Amino acid sequence: MSDAAQHSVTDQPDDAALRETIRHRVETAGTSFYWAMRMLPRDRRNGMYAIYAFCREVDDIADGDGSVDRKLADLAAWREEIGAVYANRPRHVVARALQEPTRRYALRREDFLTVIDGMEMDAREDIRAPDLAALDLYCARVASAVGHLSVHVFGDSSDAAHLVAESLGRALQLTNILRDLDEDARRHRLYLPREILGRYGITSSDPAAVLQHPALPAVCADVAGIAEGHFRDADRAMMGCSRRAMRPAAVMGAIYHATLSALRRSGWRAPATRVRLSKPQKLWLVLRHGFL
Description:
By secondary structure, this protein is mainly alpha-helical. The protein is built from 15 helices and no strands. Helices cover 72% and strands 0% of the residues. The longest helix has 23 residues, at 132-154.
């Protein structure tokens, strides 16, 4: 692991201090997932915090400034650390936080490894205008796999819940892509699919050039349509799930769907202006979909 990652390994706090460390990491990250996680009972919430912290660790590696070889080495170290979780000997502070929820909620090792697979896609090269199949694979790895872990913690590991994970994960990740166009371009990345770019006469895969192209709103509208389809699929699958257990998923879906709607209203006319929901908007969605 890198020096920064190794720094997280050395201390061995007790369980209470460990949970507090992870909670602080999540709550200071400003993630929309926090609103859904807060709905969970304490033990389940701690489990989701640990999953989120893991995702942040590997995402930070993929987005970091290190060389490709360094990133891949650090992600390989995380593969070993996940193996250590299942062997009851994790060392990294986040892996230690994962140990209890992994056992309690029967989290699947392959889902953790699939998330790392997705981060390796980002680490190996700057993704620019992938084809639709590659984009779907990327979304499945970095988002749907997290959903598969999450539904176990929520308390519904049924086939229907895993269908929600498949569809909602893709919907959320496509919404992130459409929201973060400018941020991704600054990292020399462009996740808009080449087939849809070509549909509107955009042949460049240069992120800055694409963001300045007059057809960008039409491209984004088509990608938003794909996301809408995944939201609908998730809603249908949700009907076969435990309503109580899947409330956090319903809240996350509602917040992200509202974000997608706001993006569509913006028309992607100013990609550098980040679209955000206000706290009152998020609170209303939490109340509407989580409690009413």
